[in-house]
Amino acid sequence: MEKKLRVGIVGCGKHMFEFIYTCLRWTQQVQVVAVCDIDEAKLNRFSNYYNIPQTYTDYNEMIAKESLDAIVCVINEQMHYEVAKAALLAGIDIFVEKTPSSTSQQAEELIELQKQSGKTAMVGFNRRFMTSYVMAKEIASRPEFGGIHMYQSQFNTTPYKSEAYFKLNHVIHHLDLARFMMGEIKLTQVQRVFIDDKRVGYTISFRSESGGIGTIQSGSLLDELYPMERLELIGDRQNVVVDNVKNLVYNRPPSQKKDQFKPYALLEGGDTLSWNTSHGLYPKHSYHGYEDELVYFIDCLMNGRKPEPNYEDAVQTMRLLEDMEVLLAEQVK
């Protein structure tokens, strides 16, 4: 019989209950043996619905009593840090949702624990695994694209509970996506519009180490029932656009002019390629990256590889959030 990883779940909130846990069904190498949450109502609902044999209200007790190979943790940034620290000290690999910690200093502390333990904490920046964004990165890496010279993204949402929470849990996604697409970046300017603590918007400008430039627009001023996300990468006479996550268009220079009186054809070496998933198809897969990142995490553990992004990677994104604060503070002076 094939060995299965013994996995513990920490955090039984809405995201875990409605979506994250079910993503594990795509891998056959997992046996979820225990679940933990401080809220007993959530804990009982989760364990009863998913038939988990052991329940705990203290993750330290779960770590001590269960023989775990890995933990999947979805709570909040501070608890992600605390649970990851406990797991690494116990010699257990762990997957935490973004945001990985409250500060870059906490992330740096966990980097040292990763090195000492030989284990790893993978961070769930799901946009690195979204179908359309993975496609866009592959296209932009082709020699024909000529590198990413300009980058523009929009990542909006409905009013958040606070500006601080909005930056730490929303803006961070597109800072990380910019790094994923373009390599390391340096912020050059941040502009802010403020209505109240729940409604705020930013335009963030940056330059990549390779010389490309970009802007990220992110605000909590929209209604999330409308399209929230858009990404455009501009190369050499071509671009790739991801609109509303599930629609990708790759515009290439046409190899045949279409403004003359003669028969026309879309040609393989030029013209536009597009991908748009069918909403009429039975939804077995979300294309939001959660399934892919968890299957990847488990596959890495089963085959002795170190999954990424880990804390060594995530700390770079955390530092960009802090750079953003510095640039905003300089405007106030």
UniProtKB/TrEMBL annotation:
Protein's UniProt keywords contain rRNA processing: no
All residue ranges annotated as the Gfo/Idh/MocA-like oxidoreductase N-terminal domain in the record: 5-125
Keywords per UniProt: Oxidoreductase
Family statement: Belongs to the Gfo/Idh/MocA family.
Pfam families assigned to the protein according to its UniProt record, in alphabetical order: GFO_IDH_MocA
InterPro entries, alphabetized: Gfo/Idh/MocA-like_OxRdtase_N (IPR000683), Gfo/Idh/MocA_oxidoreduct (IPR051317), NAD(P)-bd_dom_sf (IPR036291)
Lineage: Bacteria, Bacillati, Bacillota, Bacilli, Bacillales
Keyword Oxidoreductase included in the entry's annotation: yes
Protein name per its UniProtKB record: Gfo/Idh/MocA family oxidoreductase
TM segment ranges: none
Gene3D superfamilies linked to this entry: Dihydrodipicolinate Reductase, domain 2, NAD(P)-binding Rossmann-like Domain
